[in-house]
Amino acid sequence: MSARKCAECGEVHLAGANGAIYCCGTLLRAVQMSNMFKDSKYFVDMASRYSPDRILADWQLFCSCKKNENSVKHLTNFVENHFEPPGTELEAWCPPDWRCEPAFLAQVKDPELKKFASELNKMWKSLGRHIKDCVRSNPLQYSLVYVPNPFIVPGGRFNEFYYWDTYWIVRGLLYNGMAQTARGMIDNLLYIVSQYKFVPNGGRIYYWGRSQPPLLVPMVKSYVEMTNDRKYAVQVLPILEMEIDNFLSNHAVQVKGRTMYQYRDKSNGPRPESFREDVASASGFATNTEKEEHYSHLKAACESGMDFSSRWFVSDCGNNVGTLANIKTTWIVPVDLNCILFRNCKTLAEFNSWMGNTDRAENYRMIAGNLIKAITAVLWNEERGVWFDYDLKNKVPRDYFVATNLSPLWARAYPINNADKITESLMRYIEENKLDSFPGGVPHTLSNTGEQWDYPNVWPPMMHVLIEGLNNLGTPQAKELSQRWRDRWVRSNYEAYKKTGFMYEKYNCEVFGSGGSGEYVNQTGFGWTNGVLIELLAKYGQELTAKDPADAAGCVCPEDDDKSTGKPIVDEECPITSEAYLAQKLEKSQAACATPVNAECNGNGGNTGNAGNAANAQETETGCSVMCCRTVYEEEEEPALIESFATSEQECQCGEEPIKPDPVAKAQTPCPPQTPPQAPCPPQTPPQAPCPPKAQPQVQCPPKAQPQAQCPTSTVNVATATAETRASIAICPVCHEVCDKQEKREKPPIFSLASAAECADPCKASEPKPIEIEMEDVDCLLDLTPSQLEEATAACPCDTEVVNDGCAEAQARSAEDGQDCGESPSVAPDCSVGPAPPNPMLRKVFPLADSTTGNCFDAKPQEANNDDDDHCICCRAKADARAENQKECN
Ligand SMILES: OC[C@H]1O[C@H](O[C@H]2O[C@H](CO)[C@@H](O)[C@H](O)[C@H]2O)[C@H](O)[C@@H](O)[C@@H]1O
């Protein structure tokens, strides 16, 4: 597969003409808004049976038929006739380096956990996928992005690679002794970067406008650390640099005079894979511009990998309360991304210095140095003793707990000699937020919004970041906490597996051993979950135990209620329930509310409250009304903003100014309450899980020499059957015009008639204009060899399309009609059965797969077509078929 490059703007696109099917256009909109499939991702993952041109031409005909209007039944028929179910382009794959008894099992001492580790090892086989060759030879019929090596998928509805998931999968594979599979997956991402300069969110063309947290460099670093293969790092360094340079230049923002980075997306419109959901959340916006802005914020959140979360909500009052309608991702400077980029640049400097590239090494060292300064100046909050995201719009730090607040520990993006001070303040922060109190792991946030990257969900990659981060900090306290969270995490995952037989994408912090919920049904499999666990089991298997030794020693856990009061007993040694946590929080805030603000002037903001709220009057959880005060400071000093709460304007302290409520704005948009982590369900008795199948059915290893997979039975327009001829009718994804054929023959496809700006976005242009095929013959050529076919293709005038028609039929028709071959018969689409049947006279179709061997044709026309008198080539003028068909149909 070669990259599709726009001649005008030089941009390369992940999506070609298939973008008009899977990324935008009226067909996508009609199917997605019809509710035909429960999961919106289903349609965009279906393989096409025909070329995009043909599907769009048929779609045009379908739309021209009145009876099809608003008929879900007919639309369903259309989809069934033109698409294969998702997954037909992939086959199960058993990694060749998979072993029944990987070496790491020997590291796991506890017999129960050893068995669990062995089960996890088996799961790689059920998550292995190989892309069939037809995707390589005929990419325009798929939304799947072709990559050369087989890979491990996350699982469930995610039947393609995901960028940041791959990091935890690759690490798991490496610890599992499967370096070859890990390397293949890294090479796939490098292959994509070499063509498109970025790694998309996932391996589907509809992810073309965004990436995910850039973890390719850390993947290579992990590989090199495990294999000692420094040569590999040196060899792939130019591609790694290409990705990071490109990422840096497309994501930069200036904050307080420093260059920092944020998540973004460059496409238009709703997410194709969640189309109706995005249309729904945008419905409150009046104008198209506002809707587009909303879609951008949504997709930028997807680039963060955290779709969706109150982390990205900015209400009118500047806090994190709200719904998806409040999503403002690009107003925020995120802690994690800046740390990841810091770590990437450090590694690139290191790889360059191995090569003796001192200048380049210095350049990356400088970017990393600037980033760590920016992280400390802008994101570190001295008052609260932790890092916070920064709100660019309201110019305040966002004082809300998000697991990513601790990601600088993982990236070592802090002054190392501050480890003791950081430990002290972080322990305080962890205690204040009771982060050590949840039986099922650390929730991603403390806001219960129903979004999946919010309370009560716990995400495996984030648990890894926390466990590793605290361990990196290296102080005894931090290491102890890291160990406790690690043990709890492994045991809780194991418990869920014992109960259900599944590994989940995310878990529930309130219940030990239970999966989470959110945007879509919780998925099982699951790539990153297994990766994180295998790493933990391999590294710490000597210490880990399936049961908490404290249980055996008679620790009373909160599940054991005090039956007389109905309140859970809170034992300091045990994780407390969220209910107890909430009760404690409520008590604390009631006490705070009753106590007036310390009137003593300390010039430091006094009773510092929630520093992120540049809000007006606020209702606290307890119902007491507070006022925000902000420290007055000199512009050039660039101190951290310090805000405090007071119950009245008078209570603002020396050096502070009240933030006056805007009476009009306030009347219209009352401040929503502070995000209370609502956890109404007491977790005493975890809901009984449905009786699980003991273990996931294992995919059998395929026999050694696998027969070539059967491609989906598919037909294709002869004009699209070879690479050259495909190029000869290359359609600009932007303007949907047929490109100039003569030029096509010498050069790779160019996309004409598009302005540079339009080229950047295949979905930006107006609705797609499918090629309109008609009816009137211009010429007919007989007895063609493949090279003659190419010549004929080139000979056709630009505004025609090549049709290789069955000559017997054509001649019969000629005799009948007294005309040259190939005149279109008047076939009236049968509206009662839905879509107009593909008109055999409009295109010549050849099977894509050899019926005897099952092999896909490798971009070659069928030899048998040389048969004399068997076929002919016609160039047909394109004209609007609509009117004629409309007549017939009505
Ligand atoms: O289909 C909806 C969204 O699904 C993906 O996001 C979630 O799954 C990914 C795969 O495990 C994971 O990387 C991501 O963190 C999850 O939130 C996808 O990445 C989104 O772009 C997509 O819209």
UniProtKB/TrEMBL annotation:
Top-level taxonomy: Eukaryota, Metazoa, Ecdysozoa, Arthropoda, Hexapoda
Taxonomic superkingdom: Eukaryota
A GO biological process held by the record: trehalose catabolic process
Protein name: Trehalase
Region feature Disordered, mapped onto this chain: 663-695, 815-834
InterPro entries: 6-hairpin_glycosidase_sf, 6hp_glycosidase-like_sf, Glyco_hydro_37, Glyco_hydro_37_CS
EC number: 3.2.1.28
Pfam families to which the protein is assigned, alphabetical: Trehalase
Gene: LOC117569955
The organism of origin for this protein: Drosophila albomicans
Known catalytic reactions: alpha,alpha-trehalose + H2O = alpha-D-glucose + beta-D-glucose
Catalytic class of the enzyme: hydrolase
Family classification: Belongs to the glycosyl hydrolase 37 family.
Gene Ontology MF terms: alpha,alpha-trehalase activity
Record's compositionally biased regions (Pro residues): 670-695
Entry keyword set: Glycosidase, Hydrolase
PROSITE patterns given in the database record: TREHALASE_1, TREHALASE_2
